[in-house]
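Sample pair:
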Amino acid sequence: LIRPETRILYAESPTNPGVDVLDLEALGQLARKHNLLLVIDNCFAPPYLQQPIRFGADLVIHSGTKLMDGQGRVLAGITVG
C-alpha cells in the first residue's frame, strides 16, 4: 500500500479499543526502508511501558489527560521526537 507519494507511516499501538500491540520494530524497519516518517499514536499506553522511539519511531504522541494526570483535571497531549 506504500506508493511513491507516501510520506508518513502512522499507527496506533496499542490499538483502542482492541488493545492490539503492533510490532513496532517491524514498522520502524518498514519506514526506514521506504524513507518514511514513522508516527506512533501511543495514547493508550503510558510512556514508561511502551517507548516506540526505541524501535525507530520519529514522533510519538502521548495522552497527558489519560495516563499522566489520571484524574481528568487537565487536558493535555504531548508529541515527542
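The first helix runs from residue 24 to 33.
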